[in-house]
Write a structure and sequence with these properties.
The chain has helices at residues 6-14, 18-38, 43-59, 62-65, 73-95, 101-105, 113-138, 141-152, 157-164, 168-193. With 194 residues, the chain is an all-alpha fold. Helix 7 crosses helix 10 (168-193) and helix 9 crosses helix 10.
Length: 194
């Protein structure tokens, strides 16, 4: 999946472009699931949260509702996800017969500092996952594998070289090339995301 500028992806989603929606879903559903976990939702509730958020974005035309002049897309998405997660938590409490003042008071506020920081951390991890996916598509398989084994999985250069049947110098070169390209991809994604 290549990187699409946020504006063009949102435009495609807003025009009900099926491929745009698939890309949007692939890009953000893991982030929404993680956020559901932050809110204490179980696996089923997290899967439902993804569907609720996507449905809300689709029905209300995310491209029409998001206004870049009012802030970053990531903040807009966080508010939508947090509101649906809190609604889901309330519903689960009601279903369990625990909808008293004390239980409802324990629900997090969508603007709590802890939740905001967790979202920023999760967003950065999501950007890194996307960048690594793009990196893998842009370099030769052997180059990526050397980078993955050495830089990401902690294998020694010698172990990596022996396993791949290449020279140790090639392992260092693969890492150097991949790190440089990865930095470019992360910077590009961050500039697109706001």
């Amino acid at each position: 999946m290549g990187f699409t500028t946020r504006a063009s992806l949102l435009s495609r989603v807003g025009h009900e472009d099926e491929l745009g929606w698939r890309e949007f879903y692939a890009m953000y559903s893991p982030l929404i699931r993680i956020r559901g976990k932050d809110h204490g939702l179980d696996a089923d509730a997290r899967a439902e949260l993804v569907q609720l958020v996507m449905l809300e974005l689709f029905q209300n035309g995310v491209a029409l509702r998001y206004d870049p002049s009012k802030g970053r897309f990531r903040d807009f998405l966080r508010v939508v996800v947090d509101r649906r997660a809190i609604d889901a938590k309330r519903r689960l409490l009601r279903e369990a017969g625990k909808c008293g003042e004390a239980e409802l008071a324990e629900l997090p506020d969508e603007s709590s500092a802890d939740l905001c920081q967790a979202w920023e951390d999760e967003w950065r991890m999501n950007v890194m996952r996307q960048a690594l996916s793009e990196l893998k598509a842009k370099v030769e398989p052997e180059t990526y594998q050397a980078f993955d084994l050495y830089a990401l999985n902690g294998w020694s250069p010698k172990e990596t070289a022996k396993f791949l049947g290449i020279k140790v110098a090639s392992v260092y070169l693969a890492k150097s090339r991949c790190v440089a390209l990865l930095e470019e991809l992360v910077a590009e994604l961050q500039s697109l995301e706001g």
